[in-house]
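Dear colleagues,

As part of the handover before I leave the project, I'm documenting each prediction I ran so the next person doesn't have to rerun anything. This entry is a single chain, and its sequence is reproduced below.
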Amino acid sequence: MSSRLILSACALSAALCVSLRTARADSPASGTGPVEGDYVVRDFKFASGEMLPELRLHYTTLGKPRRDSHGRVDNAILVLHGTGGSGRSLLNEHFAGVLFGRGQLLDSNRYFIILPDGIGHGKSSKPSDGLHARFPEYAYADMVAAHYALVVQGLQVDHLRLVIGTSMGCMHTFMWGETFPDFMDALMPLACLPVQIAGRNRLWRNLLVEAIRKDPEWLQGEYKSEPMGALRTAAGLLLIAGSAPIQMQLALPTRDAADQFLEKFMQRELEDLDANDLLYQVAASRDYDPSSGLEKIKVPLTQVNSADDFINPPELGIAEREIKRVKGGHFVLLPASDQTHGHGTHTWAALWQQHLAQLLQASQP
């Protein structure tokens, strides 16, 4: 998971970024500036059988599409955000500032970069727009299908040079590789596992969802004011899930420092959280499980996790086991250090960009 708040707790000081929240920084890298837009899918049918007459998909792009001699787009890159985030949440100094600038690996003067908001996130259709708990119960398969419609129908892109995703976007990247195996040249999932969510990972998600659903002030999603008890519990779970032990110990070395940080963190998080949106965002992972289709992936794939990731603990050995089933798959585990940021390491591109460079080289068309 990740980004914006789910897995959030970013820097209340320049020294501390223990988060998953990639996102309030909004300054794009040098190069072609960001362009925002909306694409509306009519009569979108969800896997649950529910339907929305109009599904709004918001997106941000940098650069322009380029077509080869056969008329196929050959420079499009799809960048997928984490839970609670948005496309613009990745336009920050640690991600876009390292990747999208002139002369950088994903130079927006060279590539057409697509940063969509997932269903239920950012400025795309979501429960807080008005339907509240009557909003369709979307899952990851719906989010991937909607983004495919945006890319192909909305942006007229018929091929992707790369799909790269953080946290939830990491999980979606595996799904893209299985569902549309001929649609891209390379895949880079950052901070996830290609198996169903179980064990501790599922427990903390269930605790968050139940904290909202069991709060008497939630009122089956029709609350007039936010159920603050539930949101405080949810924010605390997100803080721990996104924590980076070395970074936290360095930045919060005393009891007073830790207590003061927590107070400020809660004040900040509770200003932005919407209970229905958060409930749906976390619950969307409920049936994720790409493990049965890993052999369907045809293109080079480099998966990167960090050793201090609470959500994807390396001691389970799952990534090393499953990557063997991906033809052209490669797994990188970044050692925990005073440079990594727990689950949120996915957003600090300087720590893994050399592996992206190798992937781009290996996947040259």
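Residues 198 and 305 are 18 Å apart (CA to CA). The longest strand covers residues 51-62.

All the best with the project,
I.
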